[in-house]
Design brief:
Layout lengths: L3 H5 L16 H6 L27 E2 L8 E3 L2 E16 L2 E8 L8 E4 L3 E8 L8 E3 L23 E7 L4 E6 L4 H6 L4 E6 L12 E10 L18 E4 L10 E4 L2 E9 L5 E5 L5 E5 L2 E2 L10 E4 L4 E8 L3 E7 L22 H10 L12 H5 L13 E4 L2 E5 L3 E7 L67
Parallel strand pairs: 1-11, 3-6, 5-10, 11-14, 13-23
Antiparallel strand pairs: 2-3, 3-4, 6-8, 7-9, 9-10, 11-12, 14-19, 15-18, 15-20, 16-17, 16-19, 20-23, 21-22
Bound molecules: copper (II) ion.
């Protein structure tokens, strides 16, 4: 069972393998061959070719790592290495990740599986892997310096433990963590239940992705690692809208979405057109009595959340983080608020000095999405994405759940834009606008004002400078 052919199992779309030059021949003989993925597309579910059966997940703009069985042990090989990640078409970033991608591949196992993970370090500095949320022997917890020595460059370590409880997990380094997570080192882990579980329902589609964030200067490609809050790229699996694939489902599918947060702030995740229930948290499936119907749920730093809903409304439904700054790409910061300012005079004066000067944001920021702004090379536009009715004016943590009557079971392909039935799209009113009746005697008469200024004054509200502390 050591041939590459067997090792690849059911993965159809895996491309190529890498030569681990830094690893000795003798060590390689016992190692599962590392599998690389270089395309940023959403790969089809990896149907298990051996081991206990389970219903596989689909990783948004990602893939699941194939394994080999070795005397009943599930063996995986992760390679920590520098990667180039296409974050959106035309925008590539120099990140660190695993097996050719940031984030690394999703690891899927079954409750009770004995798992052995080989980790080869091809980074320029030492690393380790922490298996976030798992019950395991302390020495397998991956905290460099505390529970193990660091994995030096060129070295391979082995982690081994039993996946004791079903649920949603993550993995990431616990060595120079600030740098390595700012550079994109992280991955998803799903432990499926062994057989039927009273709190884990069968679903038709099970999607997973990580929330992550980067600070990449417009025109450059490598994240700044010292940034704590003022990130300018808010991503899902190191992709930004319009680079994030849509979640394509069939009408009346039961849909599960698992989300893990490895940014440094919380993200209220919001779904349009449906109510969902939070069916799983960090500790596994939630008791049924706790499952409220929600349209938004917060995913705090370091947390995993699992939501489920019946996709019983056809259409293209927005799904996004509800912090509006997180649905914007680079350039969203340090732009003064210009709404309502008349700067014709200023513009005229500047134009005499700088012929190409352009006023931004006088009527809001939507102009910027419509305008073809000249941007430095390798820069993601601030808000973009072309929909069937024009610019979607979004970036960052935004995608679309596409619910279609004719989507085939097991087909994750993009069905295109929704064809709205006649008469079901908001439309422009073309009659004569009537003046709405307004009560002029309300206000002061209803509740007399006290201690108000004697004459009208204009209030100027200015945000404090120095970034977005707290968002
Ligand atoms: Cu957010």
């Amino acid at each position: 069972m050591t041939s590459r052919r067997n090792f690849l199992g059911g993965a159809g779309a895996i491309t190529g393998a890498i030569a681990a030059a830094a690893v000795s021949r003798a060590a390689m003989a016992a190692l599962p061959e590392p599998v690389l993925q270089t395309r940023p597309d959403t790969m089809p579910p990896l149907v298990p070719a051996n081991g206990r059966p389970y219903d596989p997940v689909v990783t948004l703009n990602g893939w699941t790592l194939p394994w080999r069985m070795n005397n009943g042990v599930k063996e995986f090989h992760l390679v920590a290495e520098p990667v180039v990640r296409e974050m959106a078409p035309g925008f590539k970033a120099n990140l660190w990740g695993y097996n050719g991608q940031s984030p690394g591949p999703t690891i899927e196992v079954v409750e009770g599986d004995r798992v052995r993970i080989f980790v080869t370090n091809k980074l320029p500095e030492h690393t380790s892997v922490h298996w976030h949320g798992q019950r395991l022997p302390n020495g397998m917890d991956g905290v460099s310096g505390l529970t193990q020595p660091p994995i030096r460059p060129g070295k391979t370590f082995v982690y081994e433990f039993v996946a004791r409880r079903p649920g949603t997990f993550m993995y990431h380094p616990h060595a120079d963590e600030m740098t390595q997570m700012a550079m994109g080192m992280m991955g998803f882990w799903v432990t499926h239940p062994k057989g039927e579980h009273p709190l884990i329902e069968k679903v038709d589609r099970d999607f997973v992705f990580l929330l992550n964030a980067y600070d990449v200067e417009p025109g450059s490609a490598t994240p700044r690692i010292m940034t704590m809050l003022d990130f300018n790229l808010w991503s899902w699996n190191s992709r930004i809208f319009p680079g994030i694939d849509s979640l394509n489902v069939r009408l009346n599918d039961k849909v599960r979405i698992r989300i893990g947060n490895l940014t440094m702030t919380n993200h209220p995740m919001h779904l349009h057109g449906h109510e969902f229930q939070v069916t799983g948290t960090d500790g596994g499936p939630t008791p049924k009595s706790t499952r409220l119907h929600e349209v938004t749920t917060d995913v705090a730093v370091g947390q995993m959340r699992q939501i489920e809903f019946l996709a019983d409304e056809e259409g293209d439904w927005a799904f996004h983080c509800h912090k509006s700054h997180h649905t914007m790409n680079a350039m969203g910061h340090d732009v003064p608020t210009m709404i309502g300012l008349d700067h014709k005079d200023v513009a005229r004066q500047i134009t005499s000095l700088v012929p190409d000067y352009m006023v931004m944001g006088e009527r809001g920021m939507a102009d910027m999405a419509e305008m073809e702004m000249p941007l430095p090379d390798n820069t993601a536009p601030m808000m973009t994405g072309e929909g069937p009715f024009g610019s979607v004016e979004m970036g960052g943590m935004f995608s679309v759940v596409k619910v279609r009557r004719h989507q085939k079971p097991g087909d994750y392909g993009n069905p295109g834009w929704f064809k709205h039935p006649r008469g079901t799209v908001a439309y422009e009113f073309d009659g004569a606008p009537a003046e709405p009746p307004r009560r002029r005697d309300a206000g002061a008469a209803a509740m007399p004002a006290r201690n108000m200024p004697a004459r009208n004054i204009e209030v100027q509200v200015r945000k404090p400078r120095g970034g977005h502390a707290g968002h």
